[in-house]
Amino acid sequence: MNSVPAGGASTPPGGAPPLLNIANVLTGLRLVLVPVFVAALFVESGRDVDWRLIAFAVFAVAAFTDKLDGEIARKRGLVTSFGAIADPIADKALTGSALVGLSVLSLIPWWITIVIMGREIGITLLRFWVLRHGVIPASRGGKAKTFVQTLAIGLYLLPLTELLGGAVAVDIARWTALAVALALTVVTGLDYVLRALRLRAAASAALHDTP
Question: Any idea which GO molecular function terms this record carries (predicted)?
Answer without folding.
Answer: CDP-diacylglycerol-glycerol-3-phosphate 3-phosphatidyltransferase activity
